[in-house]
């Protein structure tokens, strides 16, 4: 423990340690001066130089060699306590000693430095590797900042880390901070201003810190040059991407006394750079998504517009024509004629009402204003509610073949009902007027399947993929003049918010089967007392 | 369609002129005596003036909240109130029913639907005074006095709760019965209980009385509101 702290102190103050260690060794050697020959002490001093070199590196060992040279001369070569030597041959020994001492120091110091460098490089590579891997799997800037800060924390143990995001107007917002009492840190403000000014209009990292001159303590962005009056050892790094300053990273000084080395600051710079690239990619992804949504929205809007004008205007014009005809006709006295005309008025109105209902469903689903209110219900309960709402002759065509003891389903009653309604109306409209439409249900491996089958003309193979596209009208759409091409997309959207799917298959001998599948999370066997 | 023997007075409170006109025409044709009001205050005034036997009330009025009109009318009037609402506004519907409205109709509606609803709530208002001891619906005969349920002469045994639910639903045949009405009847609760418990009982009841329990024919669910016993 003591050895460790001495060693750490020596690493941090190498130029005091080197002469100090030689001095201490001399004090230790002095009492035994007469026991060994003067040459033996030279060997012991070489040992001392090696120790200094291995602890403090090559430059301090040079100082140690010089100190040892003097100490040997003064204390161990007679006459003692002077620089003079009695035997002129000792000058040769002294000269050789100095050269060997310096060489030993330089060699073992270099070895030590290379080893330390290798360890640090390995650690840094590992850090960058881990960061690359982890950032790839992350979507949100906050998660990125947390990951980055956690990695930096694990390797460097700084007192704190603060990650600020900046926008293009140079405003900053704290994204992630291990310390929050720094909200008005003048350093951060200054740094941001400085960095922001320098990075204007420059497409590559503008803030390349220059390598410090040899001997100078490793301070790069860390206040040197930027804030000469500040003596803190915090590191400020710009988080740059190829297009702009994305943020700033403020890393507090280390918990240990050691400062950040040049290599370490380079490493932190690289990490900040990765963060910048991440943020830029994230921003670009986001705007690409938004553009896609906008494009989709525009397409939908124009489709809704054309559908609204077509689906609402057609029955309206026909209504206007029919009614003005009744009003102006000479035959208004004929009740049979009026009744016939009114029959078509009713048809137009039904069509209008249907179109408006579908458009309302769609806009509520699109605006996500229709949050499902999930509850456990019996499948037949919903079907009963739907059938109750159909016209009598339509209702009589629907054959419900639900087995007994079906499981409960977790759905929004009304939405689920609307979904069944859209598919049933579709099936009823696209099959001959007297043919039945069958509703069945069965447990499947993944949950529950509800099957709605008709005996209509069926859906051509290449249309099957299209029928769930908004406003698509199939080849047989003439059978349903009031259709908006919205019923099935709405049904699919409702199934989707229930984590379910709708697929379409051919019925035998003809017709179509719509299969609505609910996953097992939405299906549960009924028990006596837990219908909730 | 049979016309009522004497003119029944109906007050229509709706701010939409076209709806008022349509209701006037549908109801007058069936010999109902129709009074129209275009706002809440006017509606309450006309109600005091004409003492209607049925009020048709739109919930969205320009001058007053339809719910307040309903509350106000219920302070002195016993005649049934039929609410007109738009799709998707369940909470208003339920609130109005809890305030004493009798049933609701969602716009747009067919004339047939409206007339059936009116007949059902008028019949119910009448049966509240006369209280028939026996109610027949489809192949079911519910004897309230003997607390007995028969299907084609065959007795079906029900638990006390199931019988209470069935009798309340049958007494309000074709009219909506809210969760609150049911819990008041069964548990004598002022507080509305969790509807899920009621749903368990109704589910069990369906298994006993429905010809096909997987597809209810008698007891229909009104999502978010309650149940309706259908005579159709």
Keywords:
heterodimer, A: 532 residues, alpha+beta, Beta-Lactamase, Helix Hairpins, 4 domains, five-stranded mixed sheet, four-stranded antiparallel sheet, 14 helices, 55% helix, 13% strand, B: 232 residues, alpha/beta, Rossmann fold, Arc Repressor Mutant, subunit A, 2 domains, five-stranded parallel sheet, 8 helices, 12 strands, 42% helix, globular
Lay out the secondary structure.
The complex is a heterodimer of chains A (532) and B (232).
Chain A: H1 2-12, H2 14-29, H3 38-56, H4 58-76, H5 89-136, H6 141-156, E1 161-166, E2 172-177, H7 186-199, E3 235-240, E4 245-251, H8 262-328, H9 335-366, E5 374-377, H10 379-388, H11 392-397, E6 398-401, E7 408-412, H12 413-429, E8 437-444, E9 447-453, H13 461-464, H14 487-497, E10 501-506, E11 512-519, E12 523-524
Parallel strand pairs in A: 6-8
Antiparallel strand pairs in A: 1-2, 1-4, 3-4, 5-7, 7-12, 8-9, 9-11, 10-11
Helix pairs in contact in A: 1-2, 2-3, 2-4, 3-4, 3-5, 4-5, 5-6, 5-8, 6-8, 8-9, 9-14, 10-12, 12-14
Chain B: E1 9-13, H1 17-29, E2 33-37, H2 40-50, E3 54-58, H3 66-74, E4 81-86, H4 90-98, E5 103-107, H5 111-130, E6 134-137, E7 140-143, E8 148-151, E9 154-156, H6 160-171, E10 176-178, H7 179-187, H8 195-209, E11 219-222, E12 226-229
Parallel strand pairs in B: 1-2, 1-3, 3-4, 4-5
Antiparallel strand pairs in B: 6-7, 7-8, 8-9, 10-12, 11-12
Helix pairs in contact in B: 2-3, 6-8
Plain-language structure description:
The complex is a heterodimer of chains A (532) and B (232). Chain A is built from 14 helices and 12 strands. Chain A is of the alpha+beta class. Chain A has 4 domains: 2-119, no CATH class; 155-284, Beta-Lactamase (2-Layer Sandwich), CATH 3.30.450; 286-366, Signal transduction histidine kinase, dimerisation/phosphotransfer (DHp) domain (Helix Hairpins), CATH 1.10.287; 374-524, 2-Layer Sandwich (Heat Shock Protein 90). The relative contact order of chain A is 0.06. With 232 residues, chain B is an alpha/beta fold. Chain B has a 5-stranded parallel β-sheet, with helices on both faces. In chain B, strands 6-7-8-9 form a 4-stranded antiparallel β-sheet, covered by helices on one side. In chain B, strands 10-12-11 form a 3-stranded antiparallel β-sheet. In chain B, 42% of the residues lie in helices and 22% in strands. Chains A and B meet through helix 9, strand 5, helix 10 and helix 12 of A and helix 8 and strand 11 of B.
